[in-house]
Design goal:
Radius of gyration: 31 Å
Structural class: alpha+beta
Largest sheet: 3 strands, mixed
């Protein structure tokens, strides 16, 4: 916000110092009284300056609000990752909750739960755990299931060891 304020101030000083030069025609001198066209030029310059300052302030507020929403989503993502890591049923599985926010002001946070699980029951368990914790932390969260069911593969060495 300080950067936007500094840019607006610098731009205002630049425009203000050149307005008097814009208002004078090529054949006039600095000692003559201002003509009626110089008032219109000054008002136009001030109007442009006001529009630019408003655009800079709106842009800075948007960037600041977006950064705040992204920070909140990252905190939520880390809290959900901690819950998944603490759950004893899920040890040894790579499950990553990823938080996304859109650019709009009051947008909802979307949690995409990605990874691989060995059974459909474990998939439901993961989604139930993540969904319940996400709802507890922030009720407007949407959870999306991006989990794949990949049954464990038995290696030939495991089959030989189990026979002997």
């Amino acid at each position: 916000m300080r950067i936007a304020s500094g840019l607006a101030t610098a731009f205002a000083l630049l425009i203000g110092s050149t307005l008097s030069g814009w208002a004078q025609g090529p054949g006039t001198t600095g000692s003559t009284p201002a003509a009626s066209g110089s008032t219109a030029g000054t008002l136009l310059g001030v109007g442009i300056l006001v529009v630019l300052v408003i655009a800079i302030v709106v842009g800075a507020r948007y960037v600041s609000a977006r950064r705040k929403r992204i920070e909140e989503a990252i905190i939520l993502q880390s809290q959900l990752s901690d819950v998944v890591a603490r759950e004893p049923q899920l040890h040894g599985l790579v499950i990553t909750p990823r938080a996304r926010v859109s650019g709009w002001r009051k947008s909802q946070v979307t949690i995409e739960v990605a990874g691989e699980v060995p059974t459909p029951e474990l998939r439901e368990t993961v989604m139930r755990i993540v969904g319940a914790e996400a709802w507890r932390l922030r009720p407007d969260v949407i959870t999306l299931d991006h989990l794949f069911i990949v049954p464990p593969v038995r290696r030939p060495s495991d089959a030989i060891a189990s026979r002997g």
